[in-house]
Design brief:
Radius of gyration of chain A: 23 Å
Organism (chain C): Enterocloster hominis (ex Liu et al. 2021)
Family (chain C): Belongs to the binding-protein-dependent transport system permease family.
CATH architecture of one domain in chain C: Orthogonal Bundle
Protein name (chain C): ABC transporter permease
Largest sheet of chain C: none
Membrane topology (chain C): Multi-pass membrane protein
Structural class of chain C: mainly alpha
Structural class of chain A: alpha+beta
CATH topology of one domain in chain C: MetI-like fold
Order of helices and strands of chain C: HHHHHHHHHHHH
Helix content of chain A: 25-40%
Distance between the termini of chain A: 48 Å
Oligomer: heterotrimer
Chains: A alpha+beta (about 550), B mainly alpha (about 300), C mainly alpha (about 300)
Largest interface: B-C, 51 and 59 residues
Shape of chain A: globular
Subcellular location (chain C): Cell membrane
Strand order of the largest sheet of chain A: 10-11-12-1-13-21-14
CATH class of one domain in chain C: Mainly Alpha
Largest sheet of chain A: 7 strands, mixed
Radius of gyration of chain C: 24 Å
Shape of chain C: flat
Number of strands of chain C: 0
Strand content of chain C: under 5%
Number of strands of chain A: 25
Strand content of chain A: 15-25%
Amino acid sequence: MRRESSEKMRKKIVSIALAGAMVLSLAACGGGDKAAESTTAQAAGETTTADAAAVKESKAAKQEASTAKSPDNDIVIALQADATHLDPHVSSNGVSNQITNEMYETLLTFDEDTNVVPLLAKEWSVSEDGKSYTFVLNEGIKFHDGEPFNAESVRAVYDRGLKDSSLTLQRTINAWEDVVVDSEYQVTIKLKEPNNTFINKITQFRIVSPKAMAMENASDYLAKNSAGTGPFVLSERVDGGYTKMVRNENYWQEGPSVDSLTFQVVPEDAARIAMLQTGEADVIFPVPTTDVSQIENDPSIIIDVAPATTYRYVTLNTEWALPDGRKPFADKRVRQAFNYAFDSEAYAKVVFNGYAKEPTSIFSDSIRFYAEQTPYKPDLEKAKALMKEAGFEDGFDVELIVDNTTIEQKGAVFVQQQLSQINVNVKVLPNESTANAEKTSAPLEDTTVQMWYVNWASGSYEADGSMRNILHGEKFPPEGYNTAFWNNEEFNQLLDDALKMTDDAQIAEAYAKAQAIAWEECPWIFLGNDNTINAYKTYVTGLQYKPGGTMVFRTVGLDHE
Amino acid sequence: MPNTQNEQVKTDTSFEENYIDENVSVKTNKTKEFIKKFMKRKTAVAAFFVMCFLLLMALFGPSLAPYAPEAYDYDNILAGPSASHLFGTDQYGRDIFSRILAGTPLTLGVSLSSVIVGAALGTVLGLLAGYYGGWIEMLVMRGADVLFSFPDILLAIAIVALLGPGIVNVFIAVAVFTVPSFARIMRSATLAVKGSLYVEVARSLGCKDGRILFVHIFPGTLQSLIVNFTMRIGSAIMAASSLSFLGFGANIADPEWGAMLSLGRSYLSTAPHMVYLPGLVIFITVLAFNLFGDGLRDTLDPKIK
Amino acid sequence: MGRYIARRLLETIPLMLIISIFVFMFIHLIPGDPARTLAGVEATPEEIEAIREEFGLNDPLLKQYADYMIGLFKGDMGRSLKSNIPVTELIWSRFQFTIQLVCAGLVWAPFLGIFIGVMCAIKRGTWVDLGGMFLAICGLSAPGFWLGLMGIQFFSVKMGMLPSAGLESWKSLVLPSLVMGTGIMATLARYSRSSMLETLREDYVRTARAKGQKESIVMFRHAFKNSLIQVVTILGLQIGGLLSGSVITENIFSIPGMGRLLVDSISFRDYPVIQGLLMIFALQYVLINLVVDVLYGVINPKIRLD
């Protein structure tokens, strides 16, 4: 059940944090750089309100002008939620990763622009057939428990994954054939078949000390002790309360200058804002969009607005039948009408206070191989005409399930209001995420899902991960989350072919086609991407970023008294 | 919420003294006298009018609302109170005043109906326990003890944990949470009446148990029932809105007061009227029921005050 | 005295047994197959079977209960489904926060409550009495979550005077303690007023007055001291209210106590944790009442005889 629950959490990922960042050679990654670079620039400029841009501009000036100093050298980060577990192979949701990534590192990692860059491995190469990847490791690195880091420790993580199928580590290694130790500092990972997502997924493969993993109750040990190579060492934790770490004095590269780092769980939005204002917290994440105006004029606070990799949508169950037997969502015209009736600009404004972007494809433009589509501009006349053509002029009653968090419900009610314009009467049914996970994992013959307000982010920022689990015809629940029960042969084939390709141009072409098909077919109402907003005191230095606005504290410092 | 149980405790203990001073039967001339006495308590009378107003609001409010509760206006979101929007607007630009009006039947309905059901159950159990004694009493009182050991809304939360969230389950939870206090109070009331002369007489005349219970004993326990009933409505509103606030209650799309307040807390720093005003309405409502209950008790018990 | 305590302790045992049955049955009362509920819908039949095995759901109910009780005495309440941390450990790590909150509420509220109550009784019928009692009933009627949020909005957001979350310093306890204590203050004010008024009617008070003792001495030496005994009993029951008040308070002020754990666990359907928490809450409450009863017996020896 552990696997199941983390699987659920995965859908809720707001952003995935990864191990310590190094803005190194962009060349290391290959073809995706340009796309990534331009999208960041774009995203920052195109955010639907001018506010976002203004906020960004004022950042440097503020940092210059501010004379505020931290009273101590301990950094406190107020987060909305807590990690489910500190064993990095058990938990895998966004918050868990945010916290564990300060203690555990990976062979490769992402920079701010979704490029894969070295971390524990200093270089890597791929074989001709695309089936084996060889990594050369950095030397002289020690785990928190004193064990040396080497090729054997990489192998040991793989072994742990093989032995225990309940770990979320499974998802990273399930396409692997073997891990071969070539020498003390060289390791080769062999794949069952070529897989274009491998290099992105390796950024989720967290290295833990073999000694800790060999313990009988490794997870229990790791819940209380850290055994990674990261810049911080776990010091104390109250589950659901806070997680405190101290600086790793033996860190292998340039590390943080703060004495300690505390992640404090503060679910109440207003409380997080107040904590930042009073200086109780040095960094808060996320900043609720409605509260940005509250702090943007504070001279001691800097706000960072990052394009989110999270994509929001509503699934339309194409197999769902009305009491009279008609299947409204089986008709493409109805699905398109829904998209024409939905005003994504107003959605960004009302639900995210302007801090969101209109959708231009079926996943975020910060993901590699994104291909821009023509937006469905709101057009009520056209929507009504399509509904009439499809024989649903008078609309119908439909249920929309949604998680019961404030922001999710806010969006769902907005959808309800929009669809009322074409006589569709939406009943919003908010539930705890666990209850929704039960509903949405029911197979087609048992499903009660009509519409589902949800969001998706690929933890490893790749195109396949952004589509397969939620749109591929083989990913009907309980296999995946394709609750639209949309099965398009051509789309499926494109995804399957692209996965095995090694040529970037070919991959891009296949994914572009796939996106165009889904965009035209509308298995969902396309809602948008909201920005990730972080805020921190001007005296916080050395903060780095990951894609999707995830913070990295590897070199963090405080300008203190 | 630390308050809800207090009332029960208070009535529970003060009942005995109530009782000693009072005659057993409540007759019509007494009713008149009661009304006369009650009218002297100005706060209680005021509370009574507020209560009546709330009930009228529940019945007619939704149709008197200046706006449709679902009518949105994206150009006017999170606006503070003004002449056109008395209580301001919410995150979709919906009129909060209209939504509060529309939510009155929901909020009051759930609380009233759950107290009625809980009180009925508790009364019957209490009467039976007090009258028959023995294992029935043991069972009922131990049951009440167990329920009481989950203090206050914890019991309601536990029940919702069991049944899952939702307004129907809140209704059940609040009803169950109401039962033990009535069972206890009615038991002690029954015990007191049971020994009285006219019950003895009725019994010696060969009346059936059922008749003795409901014709002779029940009316004698009526006043403690009424007092507790009024007091519990306040607790029930509080418990139900607390559950909604915690996200275990009403559908957040519905204009239930606790749920409205819960949604509003995301806007605490930018649009505090979304928290202040629904909270104020809950407060005034609970206050009215409590003041009225106080007045009732004081009128029925001339000793205190 | 020893016998009295022993008797009260013995009386508690059957109650605790019934509570334990109630809490034990919790998981069986959930509609549907408990193993399936615990495993989640995605679980394979093998996984469900494993759960059945792990939780001993194949055993006869009586044996399951016995195992549960043995575990309970060993301090083993299973593991959290969400975090896989032992429930006992999880609750223990949260316990201190809730206790801090309860104490923060108890530090001022009962005293202020009793003070208001006594003043109202002394100044009976005056505006002091009216004002005090109106304040008290307002305190009873104000929803804690409302008070708490207004407190955050005013003192933290607007004035920046008090912290709004966590439990770092005494300052961060101020607002939560306000929310925790309001109800108890109100109740005690009301209660001590009526109890004081009653004692004032007692013979010994009348006698004292008749003997011409000073009014202040009559009030405090005779009336106040005696009415306090009754007030103490109510205090015990009030602590139960505080425990449940912590659920709301902890959620508003982001304090990682047992109340927030309960709400989080309910959202996650983490049944072992819910079960454990209910058990602990009930246990605490019963024990507190036991202590109060014993105290009461100490203060007022008459009660021990019945």
